[in-house]
């Protein structure tokens, strides 16, 4: 089940009155807690959705409760919850596919399989009005950063691609919750959650994926030269791969060779 827990502002955004009749997708809250990922032995993907005004335009923010992964949406019409749902799934799939292909952990065919697995595990959609103070505090931080970026740019993001660019930036920030022992990055946690639930991830591969993300952050660091980025990235990944393979007889076909991957990209 896919659950969109709505703040009061989001509930009002999704509710409209047409020809004297109130129309809304909201239903009573599930008996499960807002952060539960299981309900009646079925998987749940819980989100908190908030609506706000930026430059007098409607902006929606959806945050995945367990991972604090956030996505922003602009240009939606009041009451159009169907379009919100469609854009939310499209953005989520595209963002996760970006990481899957960047790390060469999946291709279009395998990602299509994960897409079908997601739909199979979450056949039902549920909107309700319910909040959570901890998630809301992180969501408010996303709103603050979004308003600041809009102020700097002078305009709101135009379309899904520009919104996704903000998603990529804001989800690379570190966050903390009581349920996490250490600080974490929402993009990293969300991708691990995604590929473990809907893909074919072995637990032993998790440290390797975390190194992929660490390497990616090194490559995008503004404080390092290109040579330093390449050297540190190679060192990180070589150490991770050596540790991962030390007890294996052979290298699995679905794990990348970074040198080969870089060579292929340089030829493009």
From TrEMBL:
Pfam family of the protein (one) = DUF6933
Q: Which InterPro entries match?
A: DUF6933
Q: Which residues form the DUF6933 domain?
A: 5-189
Query: Where along the chain is composition biased (Low complexity)?
Result: 22-32
Renumbered residue ranges of the record's region Disordered? 21-41
This chain belongs to the protein called DUF6933 domain-containing protein
**Record organism:** Vibrio quintilis
